[in-house]
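Hi again,

Forgot to attach this to my earlier email, sorry! This is the prediction with flavin-adenine dinucleotide bound. I've pasted everything inline since the attachment limit keeps bouncing my files.
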Amino acid sequence: MPDAYADQTTDTSSAREHLLAAYTTLRLGGPAGTVTAVDHPDDAVSVVRETAAAGRRLLVLAGGSNVVIGDAGFDGEVLLLRNRGVEVVGEDPASVLVRAAAGESWDAFAEYAVSNGWSGVECLSGIPGSAGATPIQNVGAYGQEVAHTIEAVHAYDREAGAVRVMSPDECAFAYRSSVFKHNDRYLVLSVDFRLAKSADSAPIRYAELARSLGASAGDRVPLRLARDTVLKLRAGKGMVLDPEDRDTWSVGSFFTNPVVPAAFFAGLSGSAEMPHWPGADDTVKLPAAWLIENAGFPKGFAGDGVAISSKHTLALTNRGAGTTGALLDLARTIRDGVHARFGVELHPEPVLVDCAL
Ligand SMILES: Cc1cc2nc3c(=O)[nH]c(=O)nc-3n(C[C@H](O)[C@H](O)[C@H](O)COP(=O)(O)OP(=O)(O)OC[C@H]3O[C@@H](n4cnc5c(N)ncnc54)[C@H](O)[C@@H]3O)c2cc1C
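C-alpha cells for the complex follow:
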C-alpha cells in the first residue's frame, strides 16, 4: 500500500528537536517533548504504559489531519502510530470482515476495498489519516460514515490495563463523535470493518454525489466509479491532500454542522432561506458553510498567514507562514460573526491540543 506518511519524518533519533508541525496536515504545532514512532501494537501499548508510569502526558498522533496543536507545542510523549496491515479475518457468502491496523493509511484501505470488490467505504475515499482514527470522530463524507461498517474496535483500555474488543454500541457513534473523542482512555490498535461483496457501491445517499454520477438517491453504481467521482469532487474542494496546494493545508472541515432544536430553528432570523436537514429527536442540522458565508466570511477570507480555503468555506488553511494562534484568531472571528448574525454556536471539529478556541 502507498505510504501515507511519506512526507512526514519519523526519524526519532533527532526527534527531540522536532516541531510537531512536521506531523500535522496544517503544518502547525510547536516542539514535542519526545517523539516515539511505533510499528507494532505491542510497542504502542508499552509506550502508553511507560508514559503513565513516568507520570508524563501522552499525545497519540497518526496522520495528524484532525489536530490543532498549540504554538508552544506539547511537553510530553508524542506517540506516532505506524503499525500497518490489512487482513481478512472472516467471510460469508455476502461479506468479508476486514481488519485494518490502526496506523494503516485510510485511503489505501478504501482503495484496497474497492479493488477487491468490497463495498461500504467507497464514498469515504480521499479522507486523509489513518484507519485507526476513523472511529474517533466516526469519519463521514458523501453519505457514508464508518459507523455503517465498523463491527469491532480493538483498543487498549488504560483504565482496565488491557486490550478490549468494543462493539459498535460501546463505541457510541454519533455525528462526528464517539466514546473515543476527547477521551484519552482508549488507544485504538485495529478496526474490523464488515464490507459487502459487491461490484457496486452501497446506495448513493448524498445529493451532490448522485448528481455528479447522473444517478438518483438510492441507486448503486460501480465501486470504482463511486470512488473516482468522490475523489474528483473532493479534489475540487481542496479536500484531498496535495503538498503543492495550500488549500489542503487544513484539518478538513474546521467546524461541525450545528444541530439545533427544531423550535429554535423556526425562530431563527433568515431560517426561511437557510438550507437545513431535519434530524432525529426534533432537531435540525444546519450547514456551517452556509452560515459562515452568509455571516460575511467568503472563501479566501484571510487572517495573518492563514485563510479560509479558496475552494471550501469550512476549511481554515495555513498559507505557509501561519501560526496556530493566527488560525484560532481567524476561527474565533468566524465563530463570533456567525453567532452575532444568526445566534448559532459553531463548534470545532478537530481536537485542540494545548490550545483553545
Ligand atoms: C483535507 C482534509 C479533508 C478531510 N476530510 C474529512 C472528511 O471528509 N470527513 C471526516 O470525517 N474527516 C475529514 N478530515 C479529518 C481527518 O482526516 C479525519 O478525522 C481522520 O480520521 C484523522 O485521522 P488521523 O490519523 O490524521 O488522526 P490524527 O489527526 O493523528 O488524530 C486525531 C485525534 O484522534 C486521536 N487518535 C488518532 N489515532 C488514534 C488511535 N489509534 N487511538 C486513539 N486515539 C487516536 C488523536 O490523539 C487525536 O486526538 C479531513 C482532514 C483533511 C486534512
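Residues 161 and 206 are 41 Å apart (CA to CA). The pocket of flavin-adenine dinucleotide is lined by residues 25, 60-67, 81, 102, 127-130, 132-134, 136-137, 139-141, 180, 186-188, 239, 241, 248, 250-252, 351 (CB under 6 Å).

That should be everything now.

G.
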